């Protein structure tokens, strides 16, 4: 055969060979147009579709699903150091009960692989204390995150006109294991009245006589861990003055309906107030008409600070040393607000040295609305609404990590341990 081809001679195919050739031609004509491209698309190299960040809580069951578009299906693996107690399954489930002491930001690489190739993703996992966070959603109801709820943002109903106040009873700083308390959420309704709810109990009227504009401020004080605990709540009244009331919490963590008269603390407010104990004394922080923050207590008048803010401020007390000294629970206090440059600004109170300078050294973009401070032990964790209306948490390494969501006008938050 090779010699005949070299001589330029051609052989006539036999009938069987001719029939096979015609059948092959007919088969080619029967293949639909584009079938070749569809066959090529039957396989695809991995492309990540899930976010490169997640947030886990210490001493809680956590889960985050890593996803990628790939055919055939991908397997996932991680390189680098994951927090103690966290693993990544080959199916892409990042999960675990994160150990105490691993709070902070952890960076590692996730690889998705299949027979067509691999893809890598630089992943950031933030480990936080168990905080409760609440916002007014775009639908007007309360959306919240808390260890007692399913992961992610959960709708808790209601109809609010501003972000909620989120508060929880104080806990000891350094006991083992550190107790976790249950949060309560206080919101201003469309009737300008304050309503309150817990994670498990629905909304109830807090007071039939108090009428508020914007977001309330609140604090829970008492000797941990058994109480009794007092809820102090304040708001900007319809006359723009500061109004205050207080009530003892019941064993279910909620107060009875407040029937006592509200106290007019005067002033002219431009936003809702913040409430926190300073050296054991309930203190109110308000934004005045000059753009400066003023403080006052139930027994002392207003005092102007040098702090210039936009929108509602926030303040939170936190325990030092986890001890009760001479029947007094030792507390420090952190104050925070949106600065005039739209970043987070903070001042801290220490019972021995007083207030620190007012500083805003954190990187990050701009804030919308009033931020919150969730403080626990010696950790101070600012929480804020970003320009994309998602909620962001500032870590101890000065990194902002997104918790997602869609907020309106700010955020409320409280540490639960």
Output the radius of gyration: 30 Å
| Helical fraction | under 10%
N-C termini distance = 88 Å
Largest sheet: 7 strands, antiparallel
Low-confidence stretches: 1-39, 320-325
In short:
With 417 residues, the chain is mostly beta strands. The chain contains 3 helices and 32 strands. The chain has a 7-stranded antiparallel sheet with strand order 21-22-23-24-25-26-27, with no helix packed on it. Strands 2-9-8-5 form a 4-stranded mixed sheet, with no helix packed on it. A 4-stranded antiparallel sheet has the order 12-11-10-32, with no helix packed on it.
Word description of this protein:
It is built from three helices and 32 strands. It is mainly β. It has two domains: 44-127, Immunoglobulins (Immunoglobulin-like, Sandwich), CATH 2.60.40.10; 130-415, 6 Propeller (Neuraminidase). A seven-stranded antiparallel β-sheet has the order 21-22-23-24-25-26-27, with no helix packed on it. The longest helix is centred in the first third of the chain and has 16 residues, at 15-30. The protein is elongated.
């Amino acid at each position: 055969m090779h010699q005949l081809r070299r001589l330029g001679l051609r052989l006539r195919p036999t009938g069987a060979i001719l029939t096979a050739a015609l059948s092959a031609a007919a088969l080619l004509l029967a293949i639909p147009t584009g079938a070749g491209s569809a066959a090529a698309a039957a396989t695809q190299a991995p492309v990540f579709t899930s976010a490169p960040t997640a947030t886990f809580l210490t001493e809680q069951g956590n889960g985050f699903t890593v996803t990628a578009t790939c055919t055939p299906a991908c397997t996932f693996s991680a390189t680098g150091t994951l927090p103690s107690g966290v693993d990544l399954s080959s199916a892409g489930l990042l999960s675990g009960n994160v150990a105490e002491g691993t709070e902070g930001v952890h960076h590692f690489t996730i690889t998705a692989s299949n027979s067509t190739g691999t893809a890598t993703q630089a992943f950031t996992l933030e480990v936080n204390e168990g905080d409760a966070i609440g916002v007014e959603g775009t639908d007007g109801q309360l959306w919240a995150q808390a260890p007692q709820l399913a992961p992610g943002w959960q709708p808790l109903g209601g109809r609010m006109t501003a972000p909620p106040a989120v508060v929880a009873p104080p806990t000891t700083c350094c006991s083992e294991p550190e107790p976790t308390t249950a949060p309560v959420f206080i919101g201003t309704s469309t009737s300008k009245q304050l309503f309150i709810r817990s994670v498990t109990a629905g909304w109830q009227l807090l007071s039939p006589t108090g009428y508020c504009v914007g977001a309330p401020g609140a604090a829970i004080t008492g000797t941990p861990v058994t109480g009794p605990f007092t809820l102090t709540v304040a708001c900007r009244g319809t006359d723009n003055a500061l109004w205050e009331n207080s009530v003892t919490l019941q064993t279910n963590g909620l107060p009875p309906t407040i029937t006592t008269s509200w106290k007019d603390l005067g002033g002219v407010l431009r936003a809702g107030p913040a409430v926190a104990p300073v050296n054991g004394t309930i203190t109110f922080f308000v934004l005045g008409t000059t753009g400066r923050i003023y403080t006052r207590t139930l027994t002392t008048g207003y005092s102007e600070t040098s702090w210039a803010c936009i929108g509602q401020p926030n303040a939170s007390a936190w325990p030092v040393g986890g001890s009760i000294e001479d029947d007094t629970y030792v507390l420090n206090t952190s104050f925070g607000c949106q600065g005039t440059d739209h970043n987070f600004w903070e001042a801290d109170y220490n019972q021995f040295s007083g207030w620190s300078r007012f500083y805003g050294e954190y990187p990050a973009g701009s804030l919308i609305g009033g931020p919150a401070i969730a403080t626990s032990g010696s950790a101070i964790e600012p929480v804020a609404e970003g320009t994309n209306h998602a909620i962001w948490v500032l870590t101890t390494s000065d990194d902002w990590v997104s918790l997602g969501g869609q907020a309106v006008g700010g955020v409320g938050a409280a540490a639960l341990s």
